[in-house]
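Supplementary Text 2. Reproducibility record for the structural model of the 675-residue chain.

All settings were left at their defaults, and a single model was retained for analysis rather than an ensemble. We include the record here because the model underlies the residue-level annotations in Supplementary Table 4.
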Amino acid sequence: MRAGSDPGSAFVGSLDTGYISRMHTFLSSKLFAPLLSGIVAAFLSACQPETINEPPPGVTADWPAYGGTPGGTHFSRANQITPDNVANLEVAWHHRSGDYREARKSGASRLAQSSMQVTPILVEDRLYYCSPFNRVISLDAETGAELWAFDPKVNMDNHPVLTHCRGVSSWRSNREGFCEHRIFVGTMDARLIALDANTGKPCPDFGNAGEIDTSEGMSEHQPAEYGITSPPAILGDKVITGSMVLDNQRTDSPGGIVRAYNARSGELEWVFNPVPPGGTARNEDGTWRSGTTNVWSIISVDETRGLVFLPTGNTTPDYFGGHRKGLDYYSSSVIALKGDSGEIAWHYQLVHHDLWDYDTPAQPTLVDLVVDEATVPVVVQVTKMGMTFVLHRETGQPVWPVEERPVPQEGAVEEEYLAPTQPFPSHIPPLIKGAYSADAAWGLTFWDRNACRDKIAGMRNHGIYTPPSLQGSVNYPSNAGGNNWGSPAINPDTGVMVVFTNRLASTGKLIPRAACEDNLQAQTGTPYCVETDWITSPLGLPCSAPPWGTLDAINLSTGETLWSVPLGTTRDMAPFPFWWIEGLPGMAAPMMTHSGLIFSGISNEHALRAFSAETGKELWQGELPTAANALPMTYQIRPGGKQYVVIAAGGHWSGGAPPGDHIIAFALPDQVPQR
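Retained model, structure tokens:
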């Protein structure tokens, strides 16, 4: 070939004339025209952008209560965002309150960073939420524009740990006018406040100029020992609230009172103090009896049956109970109260004589399940032990058998007594299986692994419910779960439940009183203070193999585990090259949609993720400025509008994520590429 010549002409010149004649005949034939047309069309299609469509219309869907419904299903009928288009989600709006706190010292006290655990509620076209400083804020649900804000002026320096406010509640009188729609919020300093939903101004006819001091009548306590951290429940014209009581401080901590107030006047309608049957509800000085179990988590209500469902904590302190003498009769239980009177309808104890901080952490979830071809109203209660109890909503009886099995009795201190058995559900297998053994110790290096092996071997370890000891005992699952306050999400149509499960071990070591120094878990009034910690290697990693946190899907009717997938990676926690570990420990709260999606963040990762509800496959990840351990919520307020997925990202004091004040909404763009 000559330099600069056309290579095509040289190629044609090398062909024989017969071949050229045959090609000419083919190109001139009727067979070639449609073939050429198809080739050209395919080529042009490959060069064109993807087809662009508007998002599907979807259905209107609200989110009027913390858990989506008064029974806390974490489920929405919203269906505009689907497994097919969720990958197109983008930030629609972003609101910041300015309310967050870096960890710091204040005099002799150490103040932890703030945590953001709030889930907004939607009523009509407005969102309502509370900040870590207990400010209440209303937003336009489609733009995120701030409409009003109310500041209860809580003294933040009185509260070393700002873990809360988890949410607010809505009450409507079905009339028009000022304060006919009220937003209720509980505060860290134990006030219950009623605000006009349209203006954010206090309702003057409620209590004392719009607020009630719920600590009235309580035994003497420090400000940080008693407060309200979860949204009150609404049943008819009653506002019902429990309280947070600081763990492990003393035997005479404030009692775990549950109160119902009239939503309009604030008049106290009933009080429930969980003393054992025949016990006295008050101390000798007339205050409410101290040391009773509290209700710090989210309360559910059954509006049809007029029942209130309480997830109870543990009688203080958590890790020693030799003094209780039956005072923990209602500890670590589900209690159903009659909403009109506060009387007990039934109760079911999930842990007997709890010495492990295995209090009932999650909102009792109310659904109807198909059992033996009949529809049964049930309460589903997940636990820190990773066990799922399903109880008949009207009687409290287990829907499927629960077995009382012998549990470890060795190693307890002499002043303690133990429950000989504990309840184990038989239908739904525990999410955490097997023993936590030294032989299964894990580490990044041989040195790390051997250190873990030695640490585990040096503690008492007889399986779940090994009692706290002077030697130190393995607590597996840990007091963080198993499942915690963020779970579960349940599809009421299919009976499929999705929960986040921690898979970590902790320790419980009792220290004789004479050797207790400046211990934060003093357990005053008992012979022992307590030290608790995670079981970790010298590198700070858990001594068990990952994943340390999973999303798990269970068919409640069949008891079958459908899938289990790791949640989160170590990218935001560890330096490169240790970003590869999947399945973080922490706090997480899944939300489920009718279109077949699961949304969840986690307290140690700067991301919100979407998963297929059918398979557990991850379908989308949205970046966040800090970790999101709150429950996501979703809504679509009008036909033809957009479905929004909203998450609070504000970090968590227990993890490595920085504090923040972000409320972020995701939605599909106006035009969605069709893949």
